[in-house]
Structures are given as C-alpha cells and as structure tokens.
Known about the structure:
Helix content is 8%, strand content 42%. The protein is mainly β. The protein has two domains: 3-119, SH3 type barrels (Roll), CATH 2.30.30; 134-212, Crystallins (Gamma-B Crystallin, domain 1), CATH 2.60.20. The protein has a five-stranded antiparallel β-sheet.
Amino acid sequence: MSTNRKLLGASxxxxxxxxxxxxxxxxxxxxxxxxxxxxxxxxxxKVGVLPAGEYVDVKQCQGSWCFVDRASAxxxxxxxNYLAPAEGGGGGGGAAxxxxxxxxxxTVGPGxxxxxxGIGDAPPPPPAPPxxxxxxxxxxxxxxxxxxxxxxxxxxxxxxGGWNNSISSIRLQGGAKVTVCKNNWYAGACTTYGADKPVxxxxxxxxxxYQVF
Length: 213
C-alpha cells in the first residue's frame, strides 16, 4: 500500500471517529480473539471473550487496555493490541484499518467526558485517572433500576426498608470487593464477590447486610 493511500485511509478513519464523539464512544473492531476482563490488566477476572471481527464502542483506555461497550455481550476491558479503529462506525458494515497505529483516550471532568483519538506514531494521550474503588447496588438485574454506591470501607449491618431484600445486581469498580449476607448483622448465608454480578442467583432480593473492602 502506498504512503498516500495509507494517509488517506488514516484520515478517513479519523474523520469517522470524530463524528462519533457525540455518542461518547469511538468505534473499534477486534483484530483477534481476546479475553474480556473486569479491569485493565491480566490480574482481573475474565468475564468473556471478544471474538475477531466483532465491532465495539471504545469508551476509555488506560495504558495498553481499553474498556469496550459490546452490543450483545458483557462489557469489559481488553488489550488495546487486539483493537483497530473501525471505518464506517462498526455494526458489521465497515472494514478494519488494522494496519494503522492508533490510540484512544478519554478524560472525565466536571464538564463531562472529553475524548481524543490519534493515528500514527504519536504518543498516546495521558490515561484517565484510576477509577475510585467503590461498589454500586441496583434493584434490577444487569445494573438497572434504582441504585446507590458506597466507597471501600463502608458496611451496613441492617439495610433500610427500601433496600432490604431488594438488591438484584452489583457493580464493582477500582478493585473493590463486597461480602453480602442474607440476614442482618452479617449473619446467615454470605458470599463475597470480586467482580460485577449482573445476576445474583440465590442472593437475588435476599441481601440484608453488606461489607465493602
């Protein structure tokens, strides 16, 4: 491929991505099968596999890892080495430009998210600050419905009436873990989660106390 054609392809990919910033994502495509994890590193739990050719929305990158939003599977973090910008916005209709070095970046501030995208060998944008460690509890499955979030070190031996026996999913951030129990004062059956729980099985609508650590 000639240099001019490479530059033209790079420019088209950049224009496509810039038009998607209003949707708070940059379209990408998987260049190979890669594990999806709960955090930016191999030390985090595996929650699925992103197959080669699947189109995703890249929401955020930290170092060599990016958080991807998937249309019909579990969202999570994947190695940036397995992503390429998707010409045409994804959805199965575009071609991957996997021969163009690229980087995604996002910074979240008081005014909302600010995205950047680079093509070529320019240094990547500074990574977003690490997410604070916290746990968020939801009344609906798959992180839907009413919610509340608490920081690491928080515990509640007696959930208030509006939340007692009403938790159906839990999202963990920044390496937080949570122990939930079916009775007050951490009694009865208890279990500990170290990764997001979109569906809680036998603990669905049965949690009466918790500890976040």
